[in-house]
Amino acid sequence: MHRSVTTASSPWTPVLVGTLIAASAILSTSMGIRQSLGLFLDPVARATGISVASFGLAMAVQNLVWGIFQPTMGALSDRYGGHMVVTIGAASFAGGLWLMTLGGALGLYVGGGLLIGIAIAATSHGVLVGVISRLAAPGVRAISISVLAAAGSLGTLVLAPASQAMLDRMPWNTVLLVLAALSAGMVVLALVLRGRRRGQPAAHSERPNALKAIREALRHRGYVAMTVAFFACGFQLIFVATHLPKFVAICGLSPSVSANTIALIGVCNAVGTLLVGYLGERFGNRLVLSLIYVFRTIAIASYAFMPVSVVSTLLFGAAMGLLWLSVIPPVSGLLNNMFGATNFGALFGVMFLSHQIGAFLGAYLGGLTFDLTGDYLIAWSAMIVVGLLAALIQISMDDRPAGTLAPA
User: Fold this and answer.
1) DSSP state of 107
2) What is the CA radius of gyration of the chain?
3) Quick one: which of 379, 335, 118 has its CA closest to 235?
4) Closest CA to 227 of 388, 397, 350, 351
């Protein structure tokens, strides 16, 4: 009798554990494919004659579309559940990767830009962290989100070196078809996310109302500050994901170095995310989030303005990996503490639009400055400036719960 009561009272229910495993696999697949696309820059450019700026623009469009659609996908997930949204994302992912194999403007901008941007919005943190936030009890919510963000990075560990190995042996468009088939498999995982429809909440639950929640959040000074600071995160990370392979190549290193570095980012990101989740609970999410921007900027400055070698590139990957998606636990914790979990997807989505505007500029301006100057010096310098500004904005934010402070 005592044993059954203890089991029933455990916050780690079978539904939560199963959903966490499925969500982690979906996130791992989505992020692994996205972060491997930079490996296709040189093969696609050689085969089709596109410029670095054109490829960078396509990745910039992808990130901007991701940001534009994230509030909508988050709100749909809040209201109807994550399974429907992930299914849409899996289909869009497969279609976008297939279109990329056709080459030309259609494949690059519609496939790689528009469709994959929509797909990532439907299969990434804005949807999946919301699913876990609503399902997990408050006592295990932070660790559940940390586990999701950490496990979700492991796809990069596998897919980046696997993609490079396939590119060494097969045509680039065949490799994209393999990734398209893999992305379609997320439809099966989405079935695990089914459950009580979020449009039919329990009587004690607040009904999701995205527009009302967004209006209230935009009157919160802390939410506005965190949204502005999130711009730097996108600017820094997407530049690295898109242009690091090219930067490594012009420094005379093998393509395998960039693939291994991206894989190392995935490994270290799992460790860093779990560590940051713990530190945020112990020392406060606002401080920890600010320090992430500081240390990430130090890593960028150290790598960009010192001699580039295999060792320095791998060390840079390890440092960036520890700080890569480790922003997710403190950002999620701050959002849940300030506004609760009911409209998490919509509120995270609006914040993420700022992140993706930064990502658009990081991907596109990185390629543009390279085409104009022949190097990435201006882009590296810009990342240092925006990173320091973000740290200052973040540390000064007001993170009190909504309703306890005067409106902005």
Assistant:
1) I
2) 20
3) 379
4) 351
- Residue 369: predicted pLDDT: 86
Helices 328-339 and 255-283 pack at an angle, to 10 degrees, of: 40
The CATH-assigned architecture of domain 13-194+210-395 is Up-down Bundle (1.20)
Contact 401, 268 (CB under 8 A): no
Give the C-alpha distances (Å, rounded to integers) separating 79 from 37, 85, 218, 351, 392.
32, 11, 21, 19, 35
| Gap between the Cα atoms of 317 and 299, Å rounded | 9
Distance CA 164, CA 153 (A): 18
What digits encode the pLDDT tens for the residues 87-119?
A: 999 999 999 999 999 878 888 899 999 999 999
Q: How far apart are CA 235 and CA 163, in angstroms?
A: 24
Q: Where exactly are the structural domains of the chain?
A: 13-194+210-395
Two tokens, residue 379: 């882009």
Place of tokens 């099966």: 188
3 state SS of 153? coil
All residues at 6 or more sequence positions from 361 whose CB lies less than 8 Å from its CB, including other chains = 60, 235
Rounded to whole angstroms, how far apart are CA atoms 144 and 129?
A: 9
What Cα–Cα distance (Å) separates residue 406 from each residue in 171, 218, 219, 338?
59, 12, 9, 13
Give rounded-to-5 percent helix, strand, coil for the chain: 80, 0, 20
- Top-ranked range on mean pLDDT: pick from 99-113, 153-167, 194-208, 356-370: 99-113
Report the C-alpha gap between 351 and 398 in whole angstroms: 16
- pLDDT bracket for residue 361 (50, 70, 90): confident
**Closest to 148 in 3D by CA, of 377, 328, 283:** 328
Ordered alpha helix ranges (H), 305-343 = 310-322, 328-339
